[in-house]
Automatic annotation (TrEMBL):
One annotated GO molecular function: exodeoxyribonuclease VII activity
InterPro entries listed in its UniProt record: Exonuc_VII_S (IPR003761), Exonuc_VII_ssu_sf (IPR037004)
Lineage: Bacteria, Bacillati, Actinomycetota, Actinomycetes, Kitasatosporales
Protein source organism: Streptomyces chengmaiensis
Full protein name: Exodeoxyribonuclease 7 small subunit
UniProt KW Nuclease keyword: yes
Catalytic activity: Exonucleolytic cleavage in either 5'- to 3'- or 3'- to 5'-direction to yield nucleoside 5'-phosphates
Keywords carried by this UniProt record: Cytoplasm, Exonuclease, Hydrolase, Nuclease
Amino acid sequence: MTAKTDDAAVLGYEQARDELIEVVRRLEAGGTTLEESLALWERGEELAKVCRHWLEGARARLDAALAREEPGERDEEGGKGRKGGKGAQNEEG
């Protein structure tokens, strides 16, 4: 890992998201040199990976919690499993 990646890995989700928003704002505003723009892009990619890691971890925790529920509990609440997963969008086209 590089120093930048190590730095990004210790950020919390909200910190990474907020910094990513700022990076995007600066890129969209323009006025930076090519080298500055490339550095901002690279930082944005690292921050996006950090956010994705946190979100994947949150999804895994939710899935684990749902898996621990007894099947009868989900049926009583009217839920028959999770909709909106990775394949849900493909069903509509």
